[in-house]
């Protein structure tokens, strides 16, 4: 198995990142490729998981080793495939996923694509007591990309990333957005106004 790759980010698409490692381009499937936008043309280390099927071999990429460990655990759950596991792990709140499993919070888990009540229950049955201990740093919240204040704010931040804004730009205006409550549309409009000021 390829543990990790260190190279230059040369291309980003909706679901993938291309990493140039000494002249060889590796296509890595990532839950949120745009988190690498600020590292474009820079050297980074991406932790990988190689998934093999009869008709396909894919490399999945992760920002942190702990995210990959959670991904591997989710793959062991009946009804969860690589795409579903990736969506859960790279939601921007992996520590909340761990907490939901440990606290048997089915409602939180069912908000992810393809996860119904039956699958959420299966995740809890299979993984409760098995995720916190293998990811102490993740459980401590060291790798959380944002503190999810509310769903509207999180949706607005994701929309900004989709529009092409990089993390350093978003971080500059995030305090102004957190300072006042509002809808997703309100946050987006406010964010764009703040971007113009910058």
UniProtKB/TrEMBL annotation:
The keyword DNA damage applies. One of its GO terms (cellular component) is Holliday junction resolvase complex. SMART domains: HhH1 (SM00278). Keywords: Cytoplasm, DNA damage, DNA recombination, DNA repair, DNA-binding, Hydrolase. GO terms for biological process: DNA recombination; DNA repair. SUPFAM superfamilies: DNA helicase RuvA subunit, C-terminal domain, Nucleic acid-binding proteins, RuvA domain 2-like. Pfam families: HHH_5 (PF14520), RuvA_C (PF07499), RuvA_N (PF01330). GO terms for molecular function: ATP binding; four-way junction DNA binding; four-way junction helicase activity; hydrolase activity. Residues 148-198 are annotated as: Domain III. Coiled coil: none annotated. Signal peptide: none annotated. Its main location: cytoplasm. It comes from the Bacteria. Residues 72-91, 107-126 form the Helix-hairpin-helix DNA-binding motif class domain. It is found in: Cytoplasm. The RuvA-RuvB-RuvC complex processes Holliday junction (HJ) DNA during genetic recombination and DNA repair, while the RuvA-RuvB complex plays an important role in the rescue of blocked DNA replication forks via replication fork reversal (RFR). RuvA specifically binds to HJ cruciform DNA, conferring on it an open structure. The RuvB hexamer acts as an ATP-dependent pump, pulling dsDNA into and through the RuvAB complex. HJ branch migration allows RuvC to scan DNA until it finds its consensus sequence, where it cleaves and resolves the cruciform DNA. Homotetramer. Forms an RuvA(8)-RuvB(12)-Holliday junction (HJ) complex. HJ DNA is sandwiched between 2 RuvA tetramers; dsDNA enters through RuvA and exits via RuvB. An RuvB hexamer assembles on each DNA strand where it exits the tetramer. Each RuvB hexamer is contacted by two RuvA subunits (via domain III) on 2 adjacent RuvB subunits; this complex drives branch migration. In the full resolvosome a probable DNA-RuvA(4)-RuvB(12)-RuvC(2) complex forms which resolves the HJ. Belongs to the RuvA family. Has three domains with a flexible linker between the domains II and III and assumes an 'L' shape. Domain III is highly mobile and contacts RuvB. This is Holliday junction branch migration complex subunit RuvA. It comes from Paenalkalicoccus suaedae. The lineage of its organism: Bacteria, Bacillati, Bacillota, Bacilli, Bacillales.
């Amino acid at each position: 198995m390829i543990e990790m790759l260190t190279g230059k980010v040369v291309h980003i698409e909706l679901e993938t990142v291309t990493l140039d490692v000494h002249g060889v381009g590796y296509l890595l499937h990532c839950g949120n490729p745009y988190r690498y936008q600020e590292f474009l043309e820079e050297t980074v280390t991406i932790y990988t998981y190689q998934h093999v099927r009869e008709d396909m071999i894919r490399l999945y990429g992760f920002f942190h080793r702990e995210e990959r460990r959670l991904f591997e655990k989710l793959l062991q759950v009946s009804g969860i495939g690589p795409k579903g596991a990736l969506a859960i792990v790279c939601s921007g709140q992996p520590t909340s996923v761990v907490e939901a499993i440990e606290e048997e919070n089915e409602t939180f888990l069912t908000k992810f694509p393809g996860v119904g009540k039956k699958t959420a229950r299966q995740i809890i049955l299979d993984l409760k007591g098995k995720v916190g201990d293998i990811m102490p740093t993740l459980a401590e919240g060291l790798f959380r990309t944002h503190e999810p204040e509310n769903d509207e704010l999180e949706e607005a931040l994701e929309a900004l990333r989709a529009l092409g804004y990089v993390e350093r730009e978003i971080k500059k205006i995030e305090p102004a957005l957190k300072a006042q409550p509002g809808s997703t549309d309100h946050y987006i409009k406010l964010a764009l106004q703040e971007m113009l000021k910058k």
